[in-house]
Amino acid sequence: MNLPTPLQQHLDHINRRYFFGRTACGLGTAALASLLNPRLFAESPPVPVAAPVTGEPPALAELHRPARAKRVIWLFMADAPSQLDLWDYKPGLQEYFDKDLPESVRNGQRITTMTSGQSRLPVAPSMFKFNQHGQQGTWVSELLPHTASMMDDLCLVKTVNTEAINHDPAITYIQTGSQIPGRPSLGAWLSYGIGSPNADLPAYVVLHSRLAAGSQSQALFSRLWGSGFLPTRHQGVALRSVGDPVLYLSNPPGVNDTRRRRMLDGLSALNQTRLAEVGDPEINARIAQYEMAYRMQSSVPELTDLSQETAATLDMYGPDVKTPGTYAYNCLLARRLAERNVRFTQVFLRGWDHHGSLPKQIPDLCKAMDQPTAALLKDLKQRGMLQDTLVVWGGEFGRTVYSQGTLTKDNYGRDHHPRNFCMWLAGGGIRPGMVHGQTDDFSYNAIEKPVHIHDLNATILDCLGIDHERLTYRFQGRDFRLTDIHGNVVKEILA
After folding, report:
1. Cα dist. 235→222, 275, 368 in Å?
2. Residues near 114 by Cβ (< 8 Å), separated by ≥ 6?
3. Which candidate, 199, 230, 154, 214, places its Cα nearest to that of 292?
């Protein structure tokens, strides 16, 4: 029995009866929509998405609203930094040192198996000093002196929360909108929805930073920047810090640009023939990826050549900036990608999984992170780019107020805490110099203006001119979106 090809199945539906049947239903749907939401039919000039430079056009022909940001840089602190030791100042906890966390605070909330077997949950106040910074007098840890100097440009959100309590589901959740692997990541949604104005670089680039000495970390899987059920050309491209930035980007021995171009043209012709036979959209994605790789042969070496950067700029990012793979190098590379209008850049810095010996380990990691982060903000601001570049900083969840393991006056660890943690946003239409939300005296519960991770992603999309409820993709009979069936734009933090 010969099964029909996908193309034949599609063509079978396109007949006169199908056309008139769909038209009749469409008129009724349009009439109902005009009654339920007259705004949809109001006269308002559309906001066009940038014209595609190559390949297929983006899914959205026009933005849903004027964009505040053109691009995003997400500084992702994988493994979850402690909000109590960096951002959420709780001086009253000194009175509770080594006392059991009140049950009225925990209120039966589930905890991980790493601390569920402890006989007690002793409160561990932060060992680090906090000082006030910026016009609003925001309290910031002594571990972040450089970032603290930029508080008038940041919006600190103290009440981000998630349902996930372990690393892999939590990082999958905030990246893709689902704790279950297989969904597209935020960068892939942006590539699919609005594409990129740069023809020579991917719309979505991922940069991995080296671990600080002595750090422990969870694994990062490529599905975190994958395209899920979207065409594979929307997945993130991870640049390597050793050897060629992208594997197999350079021509092999004996192959010059002319021969490679001729080979790609022949391969494209073969793929086009196969596409006409079976109608598989992944063939188009494959053609686009081959062409992108060809263009990246010249664009990537130019991107990673820092010789034209001034000494002042390099000094601003710190002593590690010239070493590929360091967080400082990747922050500078993120600025260079933003200059080239790459739509979404994600810089990963791992090592924040401080279940023990936190006071000994977190200062070194903050030292590696703090200066380059502040330098990126300053650099973008000096170049007039911060106003249309959205910068996001944060991890997958927070850390507990109680100590994991033995608590002493100079040592403690912290377990996973999903009920509240701190992130900040800057530029790209975000209100600067403000703090959003408040937590209780133990930094255990959000008591004012909670922000779920779906709300966070909805707000990021809104800054780019996208209604998170209207950027969808039909898969297995359902319209999927990044924010699932949840999410509200956090309007209070928008400029």
Report:
1. 9, 21, 28
2. 355, 404, 415, 416
3. 199
pLDDT in tens, 211-261: 876 677 888 999 999 999 999 989 999 998 777 777 666 777 777 777 767
Residue 451 CA to residue 468 CA, distance in Å, equals: 16
What are 359's two structure tokens? 């006071």
What does the block give as tokens for 326?
Answer: 């360091």
Question: What DSSP letter does each residue of 455-493 carry, written as one string?
Answer: HHHHHHHHHTT--TTT--EEETTEEE-TTTT-----GGG
| C-alpha distances in Å from residue 366, one per residue of 140, 212, 320 | 13, 10, 14
**351, 371 contact by CB (below 8 A):** no
**What is the maximum span of the chain, computed from C-alpha positions, in angstroms?**
79
Secondary structure class of 214 (helix, strand, coil): coil
Cα distance between residue 419 and residue 440, in whole Å? 11
Phi, psi of 138 (to 5 degrees): -70, 135
Residue with tokens 């197999």: 248
d(Cα 12, Cα 177) in Å, to the nearest integer?
35
Question: Topology of 65-245+304-493 in CATH?
Answer: Alkaline Phosphatase, subunit A (3.40.720)
What are the two backbone dihedrals, phi and then psi, of residue 73, each rounded to the nearest 5 degrees? -120, 115
Residue extent(s) of CATH 3.40.720 domains in the chain:
65-245+304-493
Cα end-to-end span (Å), the chain: 62
pLDDT per position as a tens digit, 299-355: 778 898 999 999 999 999 999 999 999 999 999 999 999 999 999 999 999 999 999
Tokens of 82: 């402690």
The secondary structure of 308-336 as a DSSP string is TS-HHHHHHH-TTTTSTTSHHHHHHHHHH
* Residue whose token pair is 């006056």: 409
pTM of the model: 0.85
Q: In whole angstroms, how far apart are CA 73 and each of 124, 233, 437, 460?
A: 33, 20, 23, 11
